[in-house]
Sequence to fold (342 residues):
Amino acid sequence: MTKNKGILEQPFFWYIFIALVVSGLFFYGIKIDEDRTLLNALKIDLKNSSDELKRYKTLEKQLNGSNDSLELIVSAKEENITELRKDIKILSDSIEYLHSLPPKIKKEYVDRVHYRDNYVEKTNIYGKNKGKISIYNSCSSSGRLNVYINDSYQGSLNRYYPNSVNCPTNSAITKILPVGWHKIYITNGRNTSMSYNVYINENNCQTEKIRCF
Amino acid sequence: MNRSLLIILLGVVTIWDTVTTVYGTYTIFGEGTIQLVVSIGFALLLAGFLIRTIPIIKNPSEELIPVGTKVLWFLAILYDLFTSFTGNMDLILGNATGTQKVVLAIGLTLFVCSAPIGLSKLFFDPDSE
Fold:
């Protein structure tokens, strides 16, 4: 006796079922794969946008930092201007005070300032209370000379100049010194030496000729 | 092949099938503890239905409950195919793209979904020896 089988036990049902399932999954898979590819592309775009946004934010921070720096500079300048205004006020007060002085004192003051500005500081190219000295060798047989000023080695003279030289000159040891007496000490290759003092005058360049010794 | 070895192999694949069902259901339900618990429960229910494939299909009764069970089994296998397909696409073939990926996913899905049915055959069909 043949047993009556249900539809789920019929082979043709399963062939059709599998075919439908495979086709359905194929089209569904293609669709979700496309969607995910698109999604990945969007994710990359989103990441790029995020990176760009981060870059802009960093730039914004830097700009804000620059603004802060500018504010600091402006603030410092304003402080300087305030200080300058204070100085101007002090100067104005001083000028006012000077104008209030008796004419004799005022003239003395003006003369003193005029002298200082025109004859001391302005014309002294070596600096206030300073002069210059150029030491050169005039002896042909002395050989190399070592020069010391105030016991401090200044250099050596290898060449000699029988005639006088201009002051200052490149052929000599030249030094700016304070006004007053200074000790010059010379030695040669034969272990002989000489020592003497020179006076430096303000705003004056003087030559010092070394003879044979 | 040794029957026990075959049962172990089909059992492992059935577990993977259940995992993909949990994954697919959880993806649809959304994140959350309740959703996860329901997904696991639902997946186990489906796995139960599929492991009992042979008794369900071969039940000759035309009463409501056996016929309704057949309908539910059919829905269960459809849902299992769907979740297994999406699970394999995401969890195994995540980095691949294109038609090859889809074809591979279909192949994997058919094999994975047939595992509980094969297990059912081994357990409940006396002719399977």
